[in-house]
Amino acid sequence: MKVHLFGLPISLHRRLKEESENWTNAVPDGHEFRATPIESNDKGPFKQAEIDELFRGVNEGFLHVVIPANRNWDVIRKHLQFDCRIHLARLREPLRDLTWDILREALHAITTMDETWLEKFCPRDLRHPLLLPPRVFTTYRETAEYWRHCDTYATERFPAAEKLLEDVDRHHRRPDGQGSRSWLDASNRRYRFDPARHGRSAADRKNQRSFRFCYEIPAGFHYDVTEDSGRKFKIEIDGRTQTLEHCNVTPWGFVRKG
């Protein structure tokens, strides 16, 4: 596991780095750690260069992000929610009084939590339900917002999230008439993953790695989507509703005509 502490004010970052003797024992043995400060000495907004540095870390596999309470952390969530683990750590108020002992304890607790989360929820292959696109894949009442429930940051909620994944499998993984099973949403649209992997994104073309729930998505991976009875269906592409017989959809919900 690679843990990225992102967004400490620069003066506090310098002090804690010195107190910790260059982040010694920041996370348990066997894990990697990186700390990136922001230039502000208060809870100021992130600059684009700082956000770009966080994205570079993700590309290098630093998928477990710890952000001290910051008033514009939603900027990060908007780009990385459901891709990485994003912990908003309310460490101490005022933040300038944070000590290395408090920070280290928090980092160890987060790492321990995410070890369990990876074991229970991180996809192991492309058939995992968390890779389905929440923007497009329609659920039933029993499976509503299962992506959000599985992206939990409280260990006491893990059992309920595991049960919800079982419900997703029971309600949505259906025989497809071709001797196998694939995903069927509440709008009767069938999602089969295409081994051709020709749905390359802009990130793919830049050789950037892409992740979903901490699982690396192969370049070009997408679902082939059809209406299960063979009829045409309506779907939104680039803000316009279109009627199609087939389309390609990525795990992020980007749609293009098939």
In short:
This protein is an alpha+beta fold and 258 residues long. Helix content is 29%, strand content 25%.
Describe the overall structure.
It is a single chain. The chain has 258 residues and is of the alpha+beta class. It is 29% helix and 25% strand. The chain contains 7 helices and 14 strands. It has helices spanning 10-19, 48-59, 74-80, 100-121, 146-150, 158-172, 202-205; strands spanning 2-9, 32-38, 64-68, 85-89, 173-175, 181-184, 189-193, 210-212, 215-217, 223-227, 233-237, 240-244, 247-249, 255-257. The strands form 4 sheets. It has a 6-stranded antiparallel sheet with strand order 5-6-7-10-13-14. It has a 4-stranded parallel sheet with strand order 2-1-3-4, with helices on both faces. Strand 6 and strand 7 (189-193) form a beta hairpin. The longest helix is centred in the middle third of the chain and has 22 residues, at 100-121. The mean pLDDT is 91.
Q: How do the helices and strands line up, and which of them pair or pack?
A:
Elements (H helix, E strand, L loop, with lengths): L1 E8 H10 L12 E7 L9 H12 L4 E5 L5 H7 L4 E5 L10 H22 L24 H5 L7 H15 E3 L5 E4 L4 E5 L8 H4 L4 E3 L2 E3 L5 E5 L5 E5 L2 E5 L2 E3 L5 E3 L1
Parallel strand pairs: 1-2, 1-3, 3-4
Antiparallel strand pairs: 5-6, 6-7, 7-10, 8-9, 10-13, 11-12, 13-14
